[in-house]
């Protein structure tokens, strides 16, 4: 039995035919996949394929109207020599839900409407392309004091003089105590042991508007303090406002000079999107690196920072400035994002790729169109070692712009066509299935049962065996295992996707990234040389320079580690730097491994019979609502034959899933426990992952199955087309000869001329063609 198949839980067969040997995926051209759209049509990259996208006519006018503006934005971005480009090599922009929580009240905007602070030098403002109000330090100081006076006056209007005086006393006490501490005692912005960590209660305030004003006033007048709310202990209406020391302030104070720290905190709180802030920084690179990481850790969701060198001409006059600005995707307080102001456009297209990973293709397309990889959507991920054709969608790019770019761009292994407008993104699973054209090379009879026969007899027997295998897989179906490609490279056992997903679920982010960057034993190419170097030195910067650019995932991880450091927070940021869909894919890979193992156990325990406690989803139920439609089989259901074996499903683990109430359900719980997981493990807020779980049919069946047997040295084809029959009672086989390989055995019978098998069939969404062929070949 092939150890890799067993490792991934792929062990059992359904039918009882002998099978045959052969080579799968000898070349990527031997495996051709066409997506089947929601209308049942095979997606093609030519004019014969008519896209049935709802609402195309309704969006044409909107797309055409935005064309001129789209080109204007593109032209402006192209002609700018420095403005936003200085920051383009920083981390990918992320949207943050914290912005909504931190929005200040309308009254706060009024208080600051005439009090905008200026925080950057003329030279740096010109470098960044940001308008400089050119206010001198004296005016800035006067403006700050005016704001403080305004806030204090408002505090005295909404709070009693006694409370305001107590706030002053608390602020002074906290400041005096913390200023005397050793700066090195602060660790990651947390209050160190032995430090004063008291709180002060302003009292219960029922008005939300007044609470917002109090929060804003205290944060502005006393930047070293922060505020929070909690429900009053007496159960009265309103919320109690609590004041405490702002630990982030004191960590920043280790690196920012005292004259700048308060204004920097104001800059962060005001969220004026058009403004930047420059920080005076020591020349020590290590100190600057630490400051960049502190800013990224606490404000990285909406701020980005970069070091600039300023000089008057001589090397002795050189100094460093760290410039901080708001990320481009963040619109700032009081203004909407540009994307939200305009109606977002979506453009669909047909993508044909050859022998390429999906992430690499998306990154190449994103670089060509100058958009983020997260702007692309698709129904499913296709095989790498194959020629695949599928529908794609990109957000914020017009059809005219797509045509313009791809009529001039020649990217190896990628073709784009059939460009059309869409009303929204393509959702995962938004397809009927896939059509496969597969060549199995060097097809032979298994040695067992093959005597001394000539080539003609061998060909006849081979035809009979293939015919029997094709008929069985259509009538008996096949076990709907997740294929080996779901788990990554077979040669990279330690770093396979399932292991990475398990470490992510257990919260071992450091180990997960190390698996991603671990070299494959026995390989000495450029990628593995870079990975070995990182494994030995932990030098992310040098490793990044060694890593080939086409390894998008590895480059993203190394870039994040270099920027954020090699502590737990740095490794967390590294995982956040790769696309959300990829983080999900690793976790889903682990869930797929559990499913495969449970599928094998289910077959060994109960065979093809429905049992009490099994889970079923009746035929015809919409996939979008399957979680609500799953039912537990009762003895009455079995007696009345309410369900068939085709309705049987097994769950993919998650936090909102139901497990079988028979022995299989116990095996699920046992498996998760052995891996150190529980149902609560499938929600990871730190990685923005929520895995609710899903249900998957235990059996799958090909449709439109045809095949051809031919010899490579002959032009003649032996073709047999079988007819679909109603599935009969399933026969179960779990023999020792149950491995699935992508190469033929040396002991198999060989003829003088190589014989190939061409297969053509359709499978429903998420079913693997390699598992269908595995059932036919019985290897």
Overview of this protein structure:
The chain is α+β, with helices and mostly antiparallel strands and 779 residues long. It starts with a helix and ends with a helix. The relative contact order is 0.14.
What keyword list fits this structure?
779 residues, alpha+beta, 24 strands, elongated
Short note summarizing the structure:
With 779 residues, the chain is α+β, with helices and mostly antiparallel strands. A hairpin with an 8-residue loop joins strand 10 and strand 11 (387-395).
The chain-level structural class is: alpha+beta
Measured distance between first and last alpha carbons? 9 Å
**Low confidence ranges:** 54-139, 182-195, 330-342, 714-751
- Put simply, the count of helices is 27
Mean pLDDT: 78
Largest β sheet strand count, sense and barrel closure: 10 strands, mixed
Strand coverage percent = 15-25%
| Overall morphology | elongated
Number of DSSP strand runs: 24
Helix share bin: 25-40%
* Radius of gyration from the alpha-carbon trace, in angstroms: 32 Å
